[in-house]
TrEMBL record:
Pathway: Polyol metabolism; glycerol degradation via glycerol kinase pathway; sn-glycerol 3-phosphate from glycerol: step 1/1. CDD domains: ASKHA_NBD_FGGY_GK1-3-like (cd07792). The gene is GK. One of its GO terms (cellular component) is mitochondrial outer membrane. GO terms for molecular function: ATP binding; glycerol kinase activity. Belongs to the FGGY kinase family. It comes from the Eukaryota. It is an enzyme of class 2 (transferase). Keywords: ATP-binding, Cytoplasm, Glycerol metabolism, Kinase, Membrane, Mitochondrion, Mitochondrion outer membrane, Nucleotide-binding, Transferase. This is glycerol kinase. InterPro entries: ATPase_NBD, Carb_kinase_FGGY, Carb_kinase_FGGY_CS, FGGY_C, FGGY_N, GK1-3_metazoan-type, Glycerol_kin.
Length: 581
């Protein structure tokens, strides 16, 4: 026992990894980057209307406390002293929007979130501006589509020759980012409006909500965010690294409700409750930036792809902003210290990756567990010409096409659930290829290999398919928890903590698994071009004028209903007069 305890002595660092479907707390040895213990809690998503996705901020917060407590219990069982935990980092789902009351600590609405799969319609969930809404307190999740009309209205106010929103933020005007979700809350939720008027409201992405709550909440909690999360709001100037007055005026967002922007690695405050009371929170990165750090992509041209609910491919562009001409985003990669330089990245996002597996499980029922998809795909080894475009919420990079919807095409009488499972995995890989192609064109230097991480990378068929479709090697670290690792590295390296060195010579060597392409280049190109054809078929399915969640009855149109009823009466009458049976 003593020997085991001695083997893990030394400074430890914890990391909160708060995602769209779960919360985790992980503890690493700062000298070896070894993962010692962790705990995970699933998070519910609410679908009050089709295209709407929400989460309860209080449930998110409670899940963090639960994960910390359970992980500390597990460490105790391993004879590891939790007093060795010297710092905590936070990594979080980005763009998800929370507004809360700074006097009571209560959320004023749910976090506006990501529609991984559509849920039941509930007309009571939204009301006209100025009306009352249910008292619940969710947050707005990153893929929520309710703000499409807001985006279209705002886009008309941007001069065609001066897209100041994109030039200042690196982002296209889209439902994806926090500013329009916040605008929707201010327009539609009376509780939020009233709290702003009375100077009680605070806004933040999930990191801000967690850090404020964990450092004391209504009793002196620290209201802050880091540059990576701020850069995803569409209110932050990525050149000056400040909230932008012109952008806030454009979106009509009061600047007094915004958090203070800090670097990704500094002490923000101390834990005020729980097993780790008194431990500094000293690292904060949006999940994709955290994975970039965890993959140690510290040099220009290094890129990683994270396979989670969605797919996120980031390429480090160094200390210069590279603006994409091919539908990618320019974003802040990290700033690892108050006095350290800021680094930028190009990013492409696939909205639906792991979420398509969940959809096959929960909506179609063709698998009972997410792991079963690998077995089904292995049975056939091909999609047999079946292509699946999972554009459930539109297409994101490089298309940014909200009118698209999911399709499965190329079906024959021979197609079965195994082929659809294989096509679903291929869809993740094809979408990644589209982003990588755009990134190569913007950077001018084709990637020689792709570093990967995230839960889906455990699927060996997926990783081999990815290597085949990209036609470059795919490299996976043996320790896949790179998002949490990145947050832990930022926390441990913070000034005043100093237990984790980020100097190249001190970084632990990571064992890698490598997947080489196993098909010829011509076959790879044929499959990819067919996929592109399927993507084109998915576009233009919906407009803001058509109601996807409205009454499907033909009688919702009175003239049409009258015409059909009168035609039926005339037909019956004619049959009766002619003596037809």
């Amino acid at each position: 026992m003593a020997a085991a305890k001695k083997a893990v002595l030394g400074p430890l660092v914890g990391a909160v990894d708060q995602g769209t479907s779960s919360t985790r707390f992980l503890v690493f040895n700062s000298k070896t980057a070894e993962l010692l213990s962790h705990h995970q809690v699933e998070i519910k998503q609410e679908f009050p209307r089709e295209g709407w996705v929400e989460q309860d901020p209080k449930e998110i917060l409670h899940s963090v406390y639960e994960c910390i407590e359970k992980t500390c219990e597990k460490l105790g069982q391993l004879n590891i002293d939790i007093s060795n935990i010297k710092a905590i980092g936070v990594s979080n789902q980005r763009e998800t929007t929370v507004v809360w009351d700074k006097l009571t600590g209560e959320p004023l609405y749910n976090a506006v979130a990501a529609p991984v799969s559509p849920g039941p319609s509930d007309p009571a969930a939204v009301v006209p501006s100025g009306s009352s809404v249910p008292a619940a307190g969710p947050s707005s999740v990153w893929l929520d589509l309710r703000t499409q009309s807001t985006v279209e209205s705002l886009s008309k106010r941007i001069p065609g020759n001066n897209n100041f929103v994109k030039s200042k933020t690196g982002l296209p005007l889209s439902t994806y980012f926090s500013a329009v979700k916040l605008r929707w809350l201010l327009d539609n939720v009376r509780k939020v409006q009233k709290a702003v008027e009375e100077d009680r409201a605070l806004f933040g992405t999930v990191d801000s909500w967690l850090i404020w709550s964990l450092t004391g909440g209504a009793s002196g909690g620290v209201h802050c965010t880091d540059v990576t999360n701020a850069s995803r709001t569409m209110l932050f100037n990525i050149h000056s690294l400040e909230w932008d007055k012109e952008l806030c005026e454009f979106f009509e967002i009061p600047m007094k409700i915004l958090p203070n922007v800090r670097s990704s690695s500094e002490i923000y405050g101390l834990m005020k409750a729980g097993a780790l009371e008194g431990v500094p929170i000293s690292g904060c990165l949006g999940d994709q930036s955290a994975a970039l750090v965890g993959q140690m992509c510290f040099h220009d041209g290094q890129a990683k792809n994270t396979y989670g609910t969605g797919c996120f491919l980031l390429c480090n562009t160094g200390r210069k902003c590279v603006f994409s001409e091919h539908g990618l985003l320019t974003t802040v990669a990290y700033k690892l210290g108050r006095d350290k330089p800021v680094y930028y990245a190009l990013e492409g996002s696939v909205a639906i990756a792991g979420a398509v597996i969940r959809w096959l499980r929960d909506n179609l029922g063709i698998i009972k567990t997410s792991e079963e998809i690998e077995k089904l795909a292995k049975e056939v080894g091909t999609s047999y010409g079946c292509y699946f475009v999972p554009a459930f919420s539109g297409l994101y990079a490089p298309y940014w096409e909200p009118s698209a919807r999911g399709i499965i095409c190329g079906l024959t009488q021979f197609t079965n659930k195994c082929h659809i499972a294989f096509a679903a995995l291929e869809a993740v890989c094809f979408q990644t290829r589209e982003i990588l192609d755009a990134m190569n064109r913007d950077c001018g230097i084709p990637l020689s290999h792709l570093q990967v991480d995230g839960g889906m990378t455990n699927n060996k068929i997926l990783m081999q398919l990815q290597a085949d479709i990209l036609y470059i090697p795919v490299v996976k670290p043996s320790m896949p928890e790179t998002t949490a690792l990145g947050a832990a590295m930022a926390a441990g390296a913070a000034e005043g903590v100093g237990v984790w060195s980020l100097e190249p010579e001190d970084l632990s060597a990571v064992t890698m698994e490598r997947f080489e392409p196993q098909i010829n280049a011509e076959e790879s190109e044929i499959r990819y071009s067919t996929w592109k054809k399927a993507v084109m078929k998915s576009m233009g399915w919906v407009t803001t004028q058509s109601s996807e969640s409205g009454d499907p009855s033909i009688f919702c149109s009175l003239p049409l209903g009258f015409f059909i009823v009168s035609s039926m009466v005339m037909l019956i009458g004619a049959r009766y007069r002619s003596g037809m049976p």
